[in-house]
């Protein structure tokens, strides 16, 4: 089988992860999984779609999303966090699903439906630096959004 040519493109990459996922699963696996599925269906999927993004993959409690431009990624992330906070309002503190989001632009390598590259790795590091319920963006994203 011949190797397919490498497909490179510039993208704005968002990585989101659930804060305290292990704690939530330890307290109620079935309820946590059901709540995550519901949040993906009712909040994540439509928000990403409405802002021109593509969910690359779901990784347990995390998600990798690709956008064509940084402004769309930031707008989607802010809306996502707002909708997640609203969905959490009636829940007790220990059952709330709270996200961290990191966003970085970068040259990505597309392989099938997946993407790879430094931009993805940096977005994941930024996600880890975000406050619970917050969005952490790279300087390049900041510059793109400020001037865009």
Automatic annotation (TrEMBL):
<dbReference type="GO" id="GO:0035556">
    <property type="term" value="P:intracellular signal transduction"/>
</dbReference>
<protein>
    <submittedName>
        <fullName>Adenylate class-3/4/guanylyl cyclase</fullName>
        <ecNumber>4.6.1.1</ecNumber>
    </submittedName>
</protein>
<dbReference type="GO" id="GO:0006171">
    <property type="term" value="P:cAMP biosynthetic process"/>
</dbReference>
<keyword id="KW-0456">Lyase</keyword>
<dbReference type="Pfam" id="PF00211">
    <property type="entry name" value="Guanylate_cyc"/>
</dbReference>
<dbReference type="InterPro" id="IPR050697">
    <property type="entry name" value="Adenylyl/Guanylyl_Cyclase_3/4"/>
</dbReference>
<dbReference type="GO" id="GO:0004016">
    <property type="term" value="F:adenylate cyclase activity"/>
</dbReference>
<dbReference type="InterPro" id="IPR029787">
    <property type="entry name" value="Nucleotide_cyclase"/>
</dbReference>
<dbReference type="InterPro" id="IPR001054">
    <property type="entry name" value="A/G_cyclase"/>
</dbReference>
<feature type="domain" description="Guanylate cyclase">
    <location>
        <begin position="12"/>
        <end position="127"/>
    </location>
</feature>
<keyword id="KW-0614">Plasmid</keyword>
């Amino acid at each position: 089988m011949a190797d397919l040519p490498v497909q490179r493109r510039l993208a704005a990459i968002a990585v989101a992860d659930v804060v305290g996922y292990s704690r939530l699963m330890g307290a109620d696996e079935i309820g946590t999984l059901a709540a995550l599925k519901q949040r993906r269906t009712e909040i994540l999927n439509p928000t990403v779609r409405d802002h021109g993004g593509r969910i690359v993959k779901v990784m347990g409690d995390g998600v990798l999303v690709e956008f064509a431009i940084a402004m769309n990624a930031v707008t989607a992330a802010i809306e996502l966090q707002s909708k997640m906070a609203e969905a959490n309002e009636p829940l007790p503190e220990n059952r709330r699903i709270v996200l961290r989001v990191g966003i970085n632009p970068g040259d990505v390598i597309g392989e099938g439906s997946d993407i790879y590259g430094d931009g993805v790795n940096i977005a994941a590091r930024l996600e880890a630096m975000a406050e619970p319920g917050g969005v952490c963006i790279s300087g390049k994203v900041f510059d793109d959004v400020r001037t865009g």
